[in-house]
Amino acid sequence: MNLIKTNKFRGYLKVWAAPISLLIFLFLFGALGYRFTEGWDWGDCLWMVLITITTIGFGEVEVLSSAGRVITFLIIGGGLFVVQLTLQRFIQLSELGYFIKLEELRLRRLIRRMKNHVIICGYGRTGKEIADQLYSEKISTLIIENDPTRKTEAEEKGFNVLLADATMDETLLLAGVRNCRSLVVTLPNDAANLYVVLSAKALNNSCRLIARAANEEAASKLKLAGADAVVSPYVAAGRTMAASALRPIAVDFIDLLAGSDCEIEEFKLTEHVETIETFRSQHEYVFEISKRGEALLLATKVSGQLIGNPKNKVSISPGMILIFLGSQEQLNRIRVHLKEVLVKTT
């Protein structure tokens, strides 16, 4: 596969072989001509060829003989031919979409190097908001969009965009679904969202899948297909508006948190019992939160059960998820302390 891609890249460069070869030949021919007719050193010969081809007009290095002027005439004619050939090739390649294909090849090479990124399928209203939030958090993001207009709009904001159909396995593999941390599906059609979730789950069972659903029936089917989280914009908007009416201060606090330097982060512990036991034996039997980074422990999750406002001392266990609130510096201190038992991300 890599050999095929290398040959394809060479094929894109091969189209410029003729103009470049002619230009090199013209330089050698002109330098040799001045060398034999005028007796100049190689530096002066090459300099004279350069200013002649580029029509800079600095003047002759020395007064030319009749033979030297013939050489100059041939260089000018050859230079005009090379320029004309290059312009023709440039126009032909532009009409054939050469530069678009070259940009796609660059993007594919970039995608192959991406690790632990987030894939967004669809750059509609929901996808735009998600992409902007991830950009503000400096998370590596790749957008899959089949609408050229939306693709251009996303690229103008600095996003990497793959122009393709997200429902195709080939597209998801090209987007690096096997190396991503999460895949967010925001296509306008519930059937398409379901198709993407099924394909992504089959390609990478450990990838976290978040999907958009228009109604409860679609949401239940997406969960059955393997989506880790399903969000309905209408339901979410309704809940937010109801919360604003009943608990306005709490909603204002969440909005304030989004614009501050504080973050909520999950720390997932490894499933390996021996690693957890070793950590507990080397440290305390229980994990004393108040002495570890000054971040606030909001909740813990064990075996699917979420426990809010836990005790100050928590006994860690395999597969536990710790949810902290704090600044990036505070969260980093927690991360350093727990690095031996945290799930390794690619």
In short:
With about 350 residues, this protein is an alpha/beta fold.
Tell me what you see in this structure:
With 346 residues, the protein is an alpha/beta fold. Helix 9 runs parallel beside helix 10. The protein has 3 domains: 2-95, Helix Hairpins (Orthogonal Bundle), CATH 1.10.287; 114-238, NAD(P)-binding Rossmann-like Domain (Rossmann fold, 3-Layer(aba) Sandwich); 261-337, Regulator of K+ conductance, C-terminal domain (Alpha-Beta Plaits, 2-Layer Sandwich). The strands form 3 sheets. A 6-stranded parallel sheet has the order 3-2-1-4-5-6, with helices on both faces. It is elongated and about 95 Å long. Strand 9 (296-302) and strand 10 (305-308) form a beta hairpin. Helices cover 55% and strands 16% of the residues. It has 14 helices and 12 strands. It has helices spanning 2-14, 17-38, 42-53, 66-95, 98-113, 125-136, 148-156, 169-174, 190-203, 216-225, 233-246, 248-258, 273-282, 328-337, and strands spanning 118-121, 141-145, 160-163, 182-185, 208-212, 229-231, 262-268, 287-288, 296-302, 305-308, 313-314, 321-327.
